[in-house]
Specification:
This protein is α+β, with helices and mostly antiparallel strands. About 25% of the residues lie in helices and about 35% in strands. The protein is elongated.
Length: about 290
């Protein structure tokens, strides 16, 4: 007979168990989620900047069988809990554990002043979407992901801009350029926690910033790209992507979570050779 289930928040001492249960829970996922312990810890501690005290888990004896990994940050003007990974291991599915985990942690979130919970889920993952709806979530955004599969950019313009790599993270200056809100995990206030694994390229004319790209060279992932409004359609964005691509270990380049309504941006990437890949929903739940 299995030990009874008990709920508690996670601690840093649980990282090894978290990694093992994460791999087990996502063993049959549509996307390959296998990662080393080192990569998992980097994602939890830096990319996600996990808040252990507000990340609920459920154990059967000493075994972690269900979890929600969360970070807390401002998002679209309100304090928000972002779900950076929900999982239930095989053998414990179908017991409504996701809803129970949210029921367990919601009073603590409210006590910390959190007003909203958000998460992202593949549009094809009907089972997970149903579980989140049962927890009070509704679809708030429709995201498109794009992938440069063959590793060859279609460059029709000459890259005549001086591009410099910088170490200083000019968050206030960067925020002035972007006029499209990124997903929570890719907003600048969240990216700052992951800077050791990101690289930043800029184009400036004189001292004025014209465009920048933030990307992860180890996996070919574009985190943010922005060009000053009156400097667009001059090849700055293309030049930044080209240089970032050359500097990346992976020549398969990706950009995640562009809102599906942003036809102009999606078309820009498609003209460079990117193709539409996975689609995700952002789902949100307002707390009482």
């Amino acid at each position: 007979m299995a030990p009874p289930l008990h709920y508690r928040t996670l601690t840093k001492a649980d990282l090894g168990q978290m990694h093992r249960s994460f791999i087990e829970a996502f063993s049959n996922y549509q996307v390959n989620m296998k990662m080393t312990r080192e990569a998992f810890e980097d994602r939890m501690l830096h990319k996600l900047n996990i808040n252990f005290d507000l990340s609920p888990s459920v154990f059967s004896g000493d075994k972690l069988v269900g979890f929600i990994f969360q970070t807390i940050n401002e998002y679209e003007g309100v304090l928000t809990a972002y779900n950076g990974g929900t999982g239930v291991i095989p053998g414990y599915l179908g017991q409504g554990l996701t809803a129970k985990l949210y029921d367990f942690i919601s009073p603590r979130l409210i006590g910390e002043g959190v007003e909203k919970c958000v998460l992202e889920v593949l549009t094809e993952n009907k089972q997970a979407i149903k579980a989140y709806r049962n927890s009070g979530f509704e679809v708030s955004k429709d995201f498109q992901c794009l992938l440069l599969r063959d590793g060859i950019l279609d460059l029709k313009t000459k890259n005549e801009f001086e591009i410099n790599e910088v170490k200083d993270f000019q968050i206030e200056e960067y925020q002035l350029l972007g006029d499209i809100l990124p997903s929570m995990l890719d907003q600048l206030e969240q990216v700052k926690y992951h800077l050791p694994s990101e690289r930043i390229l800029e184009v400036r004319i004189g001292h004025e910033l014209q465009g920048f790209i933030i990307f992860q060279p180890h996996n070919g992932r574009i985190t943010q790209l922005a060009v000053r409004k009156n400097s667009r359609r001059q090849g700055i964005g293309t030049a930044l992507i080209h240089h970032a691509h050359l500097m990346s270990e992976s020549k398969n380049f990706s950009v995640l979570n562009i809102e599906a309504t942003q036809d102009g941006i999606i078309s820009f990437f498609e003209k460079l050779g990117f193709s539409r890949d996975l689609k995700q929903y952002e789902m949100a739940r307002l707390l009482p």
